[in-house]
Amino acid sequence: MDLSVWSEANVEFMFEEIKKKLRMATGGSIKASNVSEAVYEDLRDLYEMVASKDKFSISEIDAITTELGKLRKA
């Protein structure tokens, strides 16, 4: 999978991996169709940061979910 190029499948993959890594029970508000191509690089950066860590503090999880919320289309 080439994450350097925007596609709905890539966005969906990254969201699913972030949800798994953060052990998010629900991610209903996180959908690939909610992310525009304009913020794709930001999502990929966030995904790479999450993928690189094994553990997260509560404040880190809060900050990550806040950033995910900002990436959604208005």
Description:
By secondary structure, the protein is an all-alpha fold. It has one domain. The chain is 57% helix and 0% strand. It is built from 3 helices and no strands. Helix 1 packs parallel to helix 2 and helix 2 packs antiparallel against helix 3. The longest helix has 15 residues. The model has no long low-confidence stretch (mean pLDDT 86).
Shape label: globular
Number of strands: 0
Average pLDDT value? 86
Order of helices and strands: HHH
Task: Please state the structural category.
Answer: mainly alpha
Helix content: 55-70%
Radius of gyration from CA coordinates: 11 Å
Which regions are unreliable across 5 or more consecutive residues at pLDDT < 50? none
The largest sheet, given as strand count, sense and whether it forms a barrel, is:
none
Q: Span from first to last CA?
A: 28 Å
